[in-house]
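Sample A.
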Amino acid sequence: MKARLLPFVLLAVASMAQAADTPGSSPNVATPTVAERLDSARKAIAGKDWGAAFRELNIAVREAPRNADVHNLLGYSYRTRARPDLPKAFEHYQTALRLDPQHKGAHEYIGEAYTADKRLPQAEQHRRSSNASAATAPARSTRISRSRSPTTRRRISASAGDCGRGPCSPSRPSRRGALRSATPCAG
């Protein structure tokens, strides 16, 4: 007799557990925005928590299927996880570029994916596209805060390889970890 009741009791308990887990229709509970989901996904990606990143990004892509940033991050996640899925990465990068043909990040990352897939002509094409979109963006030195002193602005620009007075070689870390120019400025 007990054996016959056991399946019914388990079924009743399981249905109650599911009902407790089912979200209600409470208007007081705020759902995260797509921007908040992107921030959460970026944090998860930085921590290499691919499960959390994919959860957030898949919800974000359902909520905003025409958001190039979401598709770019999905492509990046597929490409850089422990077991890369390059076909899925290409699919999302191409969607991002179809939505925003000037998306610099998507051009850079699809170029890296083509390089990993040993398709160098396509990688070079996207590298050029990335550089072309960077040329239309404001120069790095104009984005440095004007509230900083001129000396600080020069130091920041020099660490990026452009002191504004002429060509500099790329910076490298010193023994103490500070950035310094590999060769003196020619300007």
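Sample B, a different protein:
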Amino acid sequence: MRYLIFIIVASLLSGCNRERRALEAEIESFIGTTITISDTLEFRNNGTLYTSSYFDSADFKIINYIDTAGCEECKLHLYDWGRFQRELDTINCNVKVCFVVWSADIEPLERLARVHRFNFPLLYDSAGIFERTNSIPNLASFRTCLVDSSNKVLLVGSPLYNRDLKSLYYDLFE
């Protein structure tokens, strides 16, 4: 009986390790790739259209890909991202936060941006072009990445709620 329990526990642990290794491999293969942003996608906020040069001129970009199916407000964290962008602005680094939002209906998102005083452009992708063009990790918590001026992925994960990762971001900004 103990032998059977050991086999079950060992197989469960190896299954977890297999999933973890697969996730690590997916993230490792994503780092170093170049993110492509289609010219057909629109940057906008509060009815204002922006050109892609708003982001092209940045030394670093934090790209946050959001599939808005379900709770849009829960996934976007616009207030926290706006606060983070303003924090970045105070340390004199040329970093822009880029939200790529997969949604067919932009009006609720524009309303959320106004409510949370999020005054930065959102890139709307109603056709899912961004995800098809780029090999974005499957797990939502790894759909945020730091890219350099040529859109090469340097780090994967959100700096909002992870101090160690935020520290890595800031180290690269210096």
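Observation for Sample B: The first strand starts at residue 42 and ends at 45.
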